């Protein structure tokens, strides 16, 4: 068995409720496969601001750096959303840890479990067989460019900026992944308007030459946002920048039936960082109804990508599949048109997956 | 009857094929209602670059300024998309005319014709009753901020920038429209990350106070891209910036069954500018299969908004409805699952609408 240190950061909102289940699944895998996983806990986001005034306390960052992988929940709170003038904000914690750990590649696999074919607002015949792997650049773009607010507060700006090396390194990762899949890569930008996108397109065209076996397509973001719904099956690997990736992957959650099903892996120079893409969802936080499957599937990604434990990772995915096949559903993935589902809360659902793991 | 000067700019790709039908519809309305519409033609985009080296020749701009309204087709060409290093680009013509004419508000109504309920990739029960009016800011944002490419060509940037007055004026227009509709306004931004979005949100919160009868909601762009597909009926008026509006309205075309159905109006200080949102679509250009309905519906918007001719505008919309009810379809809106549609090309479809106008 392997020995690994895992940092768990539940964060804000439903992150507090679902991340426990990601951790329990990791504990169960460790027990079954004779691995030794040691867990530490860290704070980040609104809870960290409340406790220390800092959305990413140094202590959390230190723990992160000495861990082998990080399981994260979510970040954000209505208080800051309602008051755009607040200076210290939960999201700064998330952006800072992405930057400090060099997590430049955010992988978001979008795949529909057969059992959820009816849960989406999109027609089943459009969805069946869709299987997309997003590579979202995560430490550049307008997220990290200089922000300016004039003294009179009447003008505000953010710099959308990309450097060649930033595009190159994530493009290579995306092409490598495409090679192990259906060998199609779609790069999304807005090169007809933006200079940063024209650089993006030039660099991807250059990297593409190293991968002649992969078919490359370039698409404008507006068209991509449309095609994703019109014909999701046309996509295999999608490569895009930080902002466009943020938008497209949330939209793509409808392909997987619900945001509550989607896991992501952020990787780069060292420690990997695993999180659901759903966010803190303050409207349902504290009610015990959030879907724990995205956190559990994030744990599966962690086992696979950071620890190379493919059998263990597959075991988790199979347990999720089995749970869905048995008809268990959280609210977000329940099918309003059939009476065959057993609708349950976060903990009951998490417990069913644990049962199916053994 | 009224006397009006209309500038027609077919532009590139399928713009050349569909815009003729928007014009024919306007001619027919003029004849039936005893108005005098005088038409001029102008060039813009790739065709203008080929003819003059300039994507927006001064002559076209002059004609635009002395017209009462402009009917535009589309812009863009594969040549520029494949070579991001080209300096002179068709889109510059479109961006320049928007700026020069002060067309800061782009209205994009998204409404599904009952007859097309089955044409979309989204389930009919999700779509039925959806009716959204987008207000996309059109002369600011990262589209018009400073663009920089370093001398070594390895770094590129665009400035995402908003001024208070830019947000204020379009917010007021959107709130006024919301008052005549279901009195709900959703403002979309990324205020948890972007300073320009925080200004946007502050200003919308201020303007909202002048419209206490309208219910205001603020939503992050990633969430909005998801909600639009999950539950389009929750939206009434959507107010957003230039880049986010570009993305969301293309995505929203799936609510209307096809991009080929969507018209838009760009208004501001003076002359209104009317165009389909579909773009030049070079993959199908020259084949005679493009859907002319978006251009025809753009003509309907022109009659309503620029000329105040509501009866005439409604007459056009009714003719489109009648044509769809008779089962006539272009390829993009044909329903693959029924055999009741008569599939036809651009000209046959346009001719059917003309018949129904009389
Ligand atoms: C919370 C927010 C800063 C974050 C982002 O925009 O990156 C989130 O939406 C995500 O996608 O991880
Ligand atoms: C052609 C392009 C510059 C344009 C835009 O991005 O504004 C188009 O996509 C649109 O939406 O009108």
TrEMBL record, chains A, B:
Location, primary (coarse class): cytoplasm
Molecular functions (GO terms): 3-isopropylmalate dehydrogenase activity; magnesium ion binding; NAD binding
Amino acids binding substrate: 98, 108, 136, 222
All copies of domain Isopropylmalate dehydrogenase-like, residue ranges: 5-353
SMART domains, per database record: Iso_dh (SM01329)
InterPro entries xref list: IsoCit/isopropylmalate_DH_CS (IPR019818), IsoPropMal-DH-like_dom (IPR024084), Isopropylmalate_DH (IPR004429)
An example Gene Ontology biological process: L-leucine biosynthetic process
Swiss-Prot/TrEMBL cofactor(s): Mg(2+); Mn(2+)
Localization per Swiss-Prot or TrEMBL: Cytoplasm
This protein's pathway: Amino-acid biosynthesis; L-leucine biosynthesis; L-leucine from 3-methyl-2-oxobutanoate: step 3/4
EC nos: 1.1.1.85
Domain of life: Bacteria
Sites where the protein binds Mg(2+): 222, 246, 250
Statement: the UniProt record of this protein carries the keyword Transmembrane: no
Site (Important for catalysis): 143, 190
Free-text remark on how the cofactor is bound: Binds 1 Mg(2+) or Mn(2+) ion per subunit.
Catalytic activity: (2R,3S)-3-isopropylmalate + NAD(+) = 4-methyl-2-oxopentanoate + CO2 + NADH
Function: Catalyzes the oxidation of 3-carboxy-2-hydroxy-4-methylpentanoate (3-isopropylmalate) to 3-carboxy-4-methyl-2-oxopentanoate. The product decarboxylates to 4-methyl-2 oxopentanoate.
Similarity-based family: Belongs to the isocitrate and isopropylmalate dehydrogenases family. LeuB type 1 subfamily.
Subunit structure of this chain's protein: Homodimer.
Name of the protein described by the UniProt record: 3-isopropylmalate dehydrogenase
């Amino acid at each position: 068995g392997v020995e690994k240190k895992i940092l768990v950061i539940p964060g804000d909102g439903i992150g507090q409720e679902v991340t426990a289940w990601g951790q329990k699944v990791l504990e169960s895998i460790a027990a079954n496969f004779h691995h030794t996983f040691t867990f530490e806990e860290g704070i980040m986001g609104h809870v960290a601001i409340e406790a220390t005034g800092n959305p990413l306390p140094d202590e959390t960052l230190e723990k992160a750096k000495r861990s082998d992988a990080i399981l994260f929940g979510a970040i954000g709170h209505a208080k800051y959303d309602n008051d755009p003038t607040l200076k210290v904000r939960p999201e700064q914690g998330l952006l800072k840890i992405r930057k400090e750990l060099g997590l430049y590649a955010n992988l978001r696999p979008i795949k529909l479990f057969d059992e959820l074919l009816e849960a989406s607002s999109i027609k089943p015949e459009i969805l069946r067989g869709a299987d997309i792997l997003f590579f979202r650049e995560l430490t550049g773009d307008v997220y990290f460019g200089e922000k300016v607010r004039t003294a009179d507060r009447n003008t505000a700006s953010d710099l959308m900026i990309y450097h060649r090396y930033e595009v190159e390194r994530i493009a290579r990762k995306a092409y490598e992944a495409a090679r192990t899949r259906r060998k199609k890569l779609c790069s999304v930008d807005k090169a007809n308007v933006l200079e940063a996108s024209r650089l993006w397109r030039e660099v991807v065209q250059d990297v593409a030459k190293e991968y002649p076996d992969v078919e490359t397509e370039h698409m404008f973001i507006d068209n991509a946002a449309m095609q994703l719904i019109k014909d999701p099956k046309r996509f295999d690997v999608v490569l895009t920048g930080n902002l466009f990736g943020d938008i497209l992957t949330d939209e793509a959650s409808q392909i997987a039936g619900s945001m509550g099903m989607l896991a992501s892996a952020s990787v780069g120079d060292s420690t990997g960082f695993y999180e659901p893409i759903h966010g803190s969802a303050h409207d349902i936080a504290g009610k015990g109804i959030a879907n724990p499957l995205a956190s559990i599937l994030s744990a599966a990604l962690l086992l696979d990508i950071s620890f190379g434990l493919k059998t263990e990772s597959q075991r988790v995915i199979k347990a999720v599949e089995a749970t869905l096949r048995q008809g268990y559903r959280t609210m977000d993935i329940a099918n309003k048109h059939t009476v065959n589902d057993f609708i349950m809360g976060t903990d009951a659902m998490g417990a069913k997956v644990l049962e199916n793991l053994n």
